[in-house]
Design a protein that fits this description.
Blueprint: H1 4-16, H2 26-33, H3 39-76
Length: 77
């Protein structure tokens, strides 16, 4: 259906789309915006993004391993 190049390019673009995201709930944002130093707010933002990305990396890695095993099995035939 789609070529492997197209799938790889779409995957890379999708992963790079998360680089500049601000992942904060409304309550965290309200509390952290009221303080003078923004370093705590940046730390919370980075922590939330870190926690959000890890499951995607794990699922992507498992999916890649399954795809790789399927590809090797297909080539062996």
């Amino acid at each position: 259906m789609y070529s492997i190049k197209t799938k790889i390019i779409v995957t890379i673009v999708a992963l790079l789309a998360f680089l500049q995201t601000d992942a904060q709930c409304a309550m965290c944002r309200a509390v952290l915006e009221s303080e003078q130093g923004q370093s705590t707010a940046e730390g919370v933002n980075n922590g939330i993004v870190y926690l959000m990305v890890i499951p995607y990396i794990l699922v992507g890695g498992i999916g890649f391993m399954i795809y790789w095993k399927y590809l090797r099995k297909k080539k062996a035939r």
